[in-house]
What does this fold into?
Amino acid sequence: MNATLADLAELRATIRDWCRAHVPADWRRAQTGVGDDEFVAFQQAWFQELRRAGYAVPHWPAEWGGGMSAAEQMVLYQELAAADAPRLVLAFVSIHHAAATLLTAGTDEQRRRHLPGILDGEIWVQGFSEPEAGSDLASLRTTARRESRAGGDVFVVNGQKLWASGAAHADWCLLLARSDPAAPKRRGISYLLMDMRSPGLDVRPIRNALGDSHFCEIFLNDVEIPAENLVGPENSGWQVAQATLAAERGMTMLELAERLGNVGLRSLVETCRRPDAAGHRPIDDTLVADRLAGFDTEIAGLRALCRDLVERHDAGTVGDASQAPPAMRRSQDRTAFGDAGQAPPAMRRSQDRTAFGDASQAPPAVRRSQDRTAFGGADASVVKVYYSELLQRMTGFGAEIAGLAAQTELSKPASSGWESGRWLLDFIGSWEWTIPGGTNEIQRTIIGERGLGLPREP
Ligand SMILES: Cc1cc2nc3c(=O)[nH]c(=O)nc-3n(C[C@H](O)[C@H](O)[C@H](O)COP(=O)(O)OP(=O)(O)OC[C@H]3O[C@@H](n4cnc5c(N)ncnc54)[C@H](O)[C@@H]3O)c2cc1C
It folds into this structure.
């Protein structure tokens, strides 16, 4: 049953009190310049703090430790953002991508094995991208050869993964690999759960423009994965991967929007209020004040877009073409998969001619997720483009106002979002948000084709 407004007000007060008591004091300063071990220990401790309160996985089903409605989650994320609580950076793939995949397409055994593990702090990484297989993910070349061994069937995996966020700390990997090289490229991929302690794995961190190494290359040399770690039917990994990709939309966007609207805007205003050596405050310049007012308005627009997406999801009308605005209805009519609107064009082509033929042929678990589409349609692409570009404009403006001083800052707090108030570093970091989960160019194609009904990309 949905919570009433009074219930939500009570929940808000409870979370606010909890935040006052539990958000670590001065964590930004304590997390600035820390090494990897300290960052991991802090993230794990914060995750367990949230878990004890029932706030770590609010989006999971109640039987697995979640059970909050979308409206309740919205209140939770608003309050965590207002209290400037640390972000769950390390557990992001575990609680969103891995959980969504297991809940949608995993077996009962896989769920029983891994969901409690995630609650206990197991870290997951997404091993999808490869050299020359990013936007065109279906071109991936890592192979998975099925073989019978004394202990049972295994997949023997060889290849290379790229840009795997958090791989250096991961216990498990969501892996896509080509299991039938003779099949059309989207029909020969299998989805595997890979233990990151398996022999034959070599994880090499990549240094990014900020000097961090949060993403990695993963080299796989004859890595053996037990056949029971296959998710969904063999060679149907492409369909299963849609559940993983859908997890990075919707509620995760709402959380990011709330953080941008709270600590992001607050620290931007603070920067603009700070007097320079001559005592001038940037905010007293009407052009600066005008920009700040503009950002405030844009954040209101972003929040409204996120709320609309999430509320329609809660009402079960995101996948219901009759309830969608006309532009979205057109897009939904044209796709076999409810959430195909979010996939890059290459993926979408495959989804329309899926290995299962159409959604009615998909395995039951995958079908259920399609019936009540996770966060589908071009509107989720609109939210992603809007958020990432607003983030760039705000952090870019912060860097402009902070001037030379911003150029001397060498590190920003770990466990924060993209809006730490170290403006130049935030600005550089903001560009990464326009790439993962489908670049903004790909998102614009989705908006054009699925939302506006423009002719398809050749
Ligand atoms: C911070 C970060 C974290 C990441 N984390 C992970 C992770 O954990 N796991 C994982 O598997 N991957 C991860 N990735 C990889 C990410 O998914 C890919 O970088 C992304 O899909 C783009 O692929 P690519 O880098 O190969 O670029 P390409 O696909 O080669 O694209 C290069 C450029 O061409 C444009 N382009 C490509 N195709 C088209 C088209 N059809 N129409 C118009 N423009 C096009 C792109 O928009 C882009 O500007 C991460 C990336 C980043 C930046």
In short: Residues 126-129, 134-135, 163-165, 215, 345, 432, 435-436, 439, 441-442, 445 surround flavin-adenine dinucleotide (CB under 6 Å). The longest strand covers residues 152-165.
